[in-house]
Specification:
Layout lengths: L1 H5 L1 H6 L10 E4 L2 E4 L6 H5 L5 E5 L13 H6 L9 E5 L9 E3 L6 E3 L11 H7 L4 E6 L6 E2 L6 E2 L6 H7 L1 E3 L6 E2 L4 H6 L2 E3 L4 E2 L5 E2 L10 E2 L10 H14 L2 H12 L19 E2 L8 H6 E10 L3 E10 L4 E10 L6 H11 L1 E2 L2 E9 L11 H11 L4 E7 L6 E5 L14 E6 H12 L9 E4 L4 H6 L3 E5 L5 E5 L5 H15 L23 E4 L2 E4 L5
Parallel strand pairs: 3-4, 7-15, 16-25, 17-21, 19-25, 21-22, 22-24
Antiparallel strand pairs: 1-2, 5-6, 7-8, 7-12, 9-10, 10-11, 13-14, 17-18, 18-19, 20-21, 23-24, 26-27, 28-29
Helix pairs in contact: 6-8, 8-9, 13-15
């Protein structure tokens, strides 16, 4: 209402009284409705020609309903020219820049795997035309796309000094651009998409990408309300505070860029601190003495199976025994035959007790999909093989659902089970064993010939808190198969209830039962022991 009252032309056209409510306004017969993302009823209540969704990254999917934007998009299905406009400050993701080979412009990498991005608005932007705001350098007049990494200030200076001396560096001529040139550059600025070029007069050459979604990104450096110096000062203060949340907030809101993960994942070199004097493929003596179960876990890819074999013992102590790959198209039978051979392999005196196989890769109903190969394999080996699928979070670390049904659609009790794994719990367990504090016992062992690739893969993700408080794991390296396998190892240990097992006490330590009728003295009175229990 304050906004309407501040504009006289709108105020006179606004229907007042009972026709107006907190969530409904009518201006010259045009309906304006306000809704909130937490309510499916609000989002599905009324049709609309234009739907505006603001701050998408601060919203969660509606339980039982799905994506907020998809629900909002359905509101204008009866309008031929209906539109959905989504705006937001981006949040989290690992996206690098990439030079375009033909134009020379540096764009956000459009080949980034969506799994490396948490931010919903950034995913939407990548599905569209991917326009980025560019402006000309006052010195060389060449156009470039402003980003945070082009902001410069004196090395080692204080935040206060950076506020007065920060400037933007031109990537073409290297000249430092002061803040007072910003308005002129914005006046000549243009949006460009990958593959397009701009001459010094601002004329764009190149085809507009074929897409039914127009998407735009602009750096917070272009804002007329904040100077380059104020942005630099806010960044330096956030970095000096050491608070990741504050650093993310400055990068997101101040520059419009994604916060990269990795700070909360252990350094891959720490993995080598867990190495012991035994070789891959062999079981060390302490593992043979204290080990309870040998576990195999498998991560399924298109052309190979990544696997880990680990021995689990009392107190959730474990030893990595073997790890590697079985190559072959997972849609065909040969690689699954190799997996059968691996499952039957004997390590020392021990056999594989349980095998967990991740069914999350490429699920579907087609006979070409590997997920059916996984289910078929588990049905052939019901005593050992179990199909699994990771979930971001759930009430229990592991949970099983029966997925086989009969002709009547009823669940077959003795049919195949799909085990859901809490990936946040299991991956956090692995990281806690890698980052064991000084003075604590080392319970997660690796062979001395472990590879650098394994060390990098097992630390390839980082936990990130979304604005809603939910924890998601984002990759900071492309390959993360060993981490997935090690996380499944933790789930397997819980399936076998390793955490509840205790070593047996020696016979001399066990108390012998009292003889029937044994007597004792209490408070000077001789009593006879009861044998009732």
């Amino acid at each position: 209402m304050a906004m309407f009252s501040s504009a006289q032309s709108l105020w006179t056209k606004l229907n007042k009284g009972k026709a107006s409510s907190k969530t409904y306004k009518a201006i010259s017969g045009v309906s304006v409705r306000l809704a909130w993302s937490g309510s499916a009823t609000e989002l599905a209540a009324q049709p609309a020609a234009d739907v505006y969704v603001d701050e998408r990254d601060r919203m969660d999917d509606i339980p039982g309903e799905g994506d907020v934007v998809t629900l909002a998009d359905a509101r204008h299905s009866t309008y031929p020219d209906g539109k959905t406009i989504v705006t937001s400050t981006p949040t989290i993701g690992n996206v690098e820049t990439k030079h375009h080979k033909l134009t020379g412009f540096e764009h956000w990498d459009e080949d980034t795997d969506p799994e490396d991005i948490v931010s919903p608005i950034w995913k939407l932007w990548m599905q569209g035309t991917k326009y980025e705001w560019s402006w000309p350098c006052p010195e060389c007049e060449e156009y470039f796309i402003p980003r945070f990494k082009l902001l410069k200030w004196p090395e080692g200076c204080s935040p206060q000094k950076a506020m007065h001396e920060a400037a933007l560096a031109c990537p073409h001529c290297g000249s430092l651009i002061p803040d007072n040139q910003k308005s002129k550059m914005n006046a000549r600025g243009v949006y460009i998409a990958p593959g397009q070029t701009v001459d010094k007069d601002g004329n764009i050459d190149g085809d507009i990408p074929e897409n039914d979604t127009a998407s735009f990104w602009v750096s917070g450096l272009c804002s007329p309300w904040k100077t380059f110096g104020e942005r630099a000062k806010a960044w330096l203060e956030a970095v000096r505070s050491g608070d990741p949340g504050r650093i993310q907030a400055v990068l997101n809101t101040g520059f419009g860029e994604l916060y990269k993960t990795g700070a909360d994942s252990p350094e891959w070199q720490l993995v080598f601190d867990r190495c012991r004097s035994y070789s891959t493929g062999t079981i060390p003596q302490d593992a043979s003495d204290r080990g309870l179960a040998l576990v195999l876990t498998v991560d399924v890819q298109k052309n190979r199976l990544e696997f880990v074999v680990r021995m689990w013992g009392y107190g959730m102590e474990s030893w990595l025994i073997d790890q590697g790959q079985l190559y072959g198209e997972t849609a065909h039978d040969s690689v699954w035959t190799d997996l059968e051979t691996l499952m039957e392999r004997k390590y020392g005196l021990h056999h594989i007790k349980i095998a967990l196989i991740d069914s999350g890769y490429n699920p579907g109903d087609s006979h070409k999909q590997p997920v059916n190969k996984i289910y078929e394999f588990c049905r052939r080996h019901p005593g050992i093989a179990r199909a699994t699928k990771g979930k971001d979070t759930q009430e229990k670390p592991i949970r099983a659902n029966h997925i086989d049904v009969n002709y009547g659609g009823r669940t077959i009790k003795r049919g195949l089970q799909l085990w859901h794994i809490d990936t946040n719990f299991t991956k956090s367990f692995v990281y806690s064993r890698i980052q064991v504090p000084d003075g604590e016992p080392d319970l997660w062992h690796l062979p001395e010939d472990i590879t650098e690739d394994y060390a990098k893969q097992v630390t390839a993700e980082a936990p990130v808190n979304k604005p809603s408080g939910q924890v998601v794991w984002v990759r900071n390296r492309k390959d993360n198969h060993m981490l997935d396998c090690e996380a499944m190892q933790v789930a397997a240990a819980y399936m076998l209830r390793i955490q509840d097992k205790r070593p047996r006490s020696s016979s001399s330590d066990q108390k012998q039962p009292s003889a029937r009728g044994d007597s004792y003295v209490r408070n000077g009175v001789k009593r006879r022991r009861s044998t009732f229990l």
